[in-house]
Design brief:
Blueprint lengths: L16 E2 L3 E7 L5 E12 L2 E6 L8 E8 L7 E15 L9 E15 L9
Antiparallel strand pairs: 1-3, 2-3, 2-5, 3-4, 4-7, 5-6, 6-7
Length: about 120
């Protein structure tokens, strides 16, 4: 198959959903010390996530992340996604503009209901 210049080829097997919600993550640094960061999702899928963040874990790092989904209007509970994965790539801010971020892949996740008033509590 020949592609015209500028054509994008989608190689992903899982659908990505654009979603900008708070996320927390942690990993062990090269000394074995726990490091933490927070950011905002750019998109998520059943196989991973892309997060915008000021703190970027190294490529290849094992990572735990927690994503808080906002409650529906009038709901007393919201949802939290918890997963473990690996940092696949880092995307620095282009030309010093925009936001840096990273992609992490995961084999699965846990979806948990939480009370709206405890939504901001992190498990890390």
């Amino acid at each position: 198959m020949t592609l015209a210049s500028g054509d994008d080829v989608e190689l992903r097997k899982l659908t990505r959903y654009r979603l900008g919600v708070p996320a927390f993550f942690s990993w062990l640094d090269q000394r074995g010390l726990s490091q933490q960061g927070e950011g905002t999702t750019r998109d998520i899928s059943a196989g991973g996530v892309f997060l915008f963040a000021n703190t970027l874990p190294p490529v290849g790092s094992a990572i735990r992340f927690e994503i808080s989904l906002p409650p529906l209007p009038g709901a007393v509970r919201s949802l939290r996604i918890e997963a473990e994965g690996r940092v696949l790539r880092i995307e620095p801010a282009a030309g010093g503009k925009g936001r840096s971020g990273f992609a992490a892949v995961s084999e699965g996740f846990v979806l948990e209901e939480v009370k709206v008033d405890s939504e901001t509590e992190s498990r890390f």
